[in-house]
Amino acid sequence: MRNHIASIPLSICLLMLVVACSKEDNSPSGGSGGGASGEYGFSAMIDTATFRVPSEYVKARLVTGNAGNVPDYFEIGVMDSTWTEERYTLWQFGENMTMADVQLGQVEDFLMAFEISGNTWIHERNDFVAPGYQFPDDEPTGEFIFTEVSATRVKGTFEFVGQMPGGTSKVHIVEGTFEAEIE
After folding, report:
1. Is residue 4 scored above 50 in pLDDT?
2. DSSP 8-class letter at 70
3. pLDDT greater than 80 at residue 54
4. How many angstroms separate the first and last alpha carbons of the chain?
5. Cα-based torsion angle of the residue sequence 55, 57, 58, 62 in order, rounded to the nearest 10 degrees
6. Is the pTM of this model over 0.90?
7. What single DSSP character describes residue 71?
């Protein structure tokens, strides 16, 4: 009887170990779900394919004091030239921007772009002129949302219908997530 009582704590510990290990990791910070948090700086479904950019290539920065009619902007994008695959870039525009303008929720004035194999699809919703881009005439729907903002990192979601400048080719970019360190 004494041997059976002594084995009860061992059995309970083994049972707890089996239950803990069998639970699927659905956390947003990696595990079987992947996602932007931790492993990927950008992740999105484009038409039927998933495109991801590892987090070490993705940064965020505030750019102010631009010349001419270029507005201030907060940019999240691939800022490492050694990454030669697909690229996502998200810009939030504003006048006299500071980090206080980067807040939780929907971004009102933005431009989003996806580039792969030399082709670029753009979606914009802003009142500013950004030299170098020719925007599509129609205005497809799009969302750019900050879900977390701190002094060192930003995290959020995006989706849009992108159109090639000067063309009719479109792509649907959905389930977009981003997470980036602020430079």
Report:
1. no
2. P
3. yes
4. 65
5. 140
6. no
7. P
Question: What is the token pair recorded at 19?
Answer: 């239950």
Q: Sort 128 into a burial class: Cβ within 10 Å, 0-12 / 13-18 / 19+.
A: middle
In degrees and rounded to multiples of 5, residue 79 shows phi and psi of -110, 20
Q: How far is CA 142 from CA 44, 46, 51, 106, 164, in A?
A: 14, 14, 18, 10, 15
What pLDDT score was predicted for residue 10? Answer: 29
How many Å apart are CA 183 and CA 175, to the nearest integer?
A: 25
Q: What is the pLDDT of residue 16?
A: 30
Residue type, 10: L
And the tokens for 104?
A: 């939780």
Please write the tens of the pLDDT for every residue from 125-170: 776 655 445 455 555 568 899 999 999 999 999 998 888 877 778 8
Whole-number Å distance between alpha carbons of 29 and 36: 8
- Among residues 62, 61, 54, 59, which one has the least CA distance to residue 37? 54
For strand 40-46 and strand 49-54, is the pairing parallel, antiparallel, or unpaired? antiparallel
- DSSP string for residues in 113-156: EEEETTEEEEEEE-SS--TT----SS---EEEEEEEE-SSEEEE
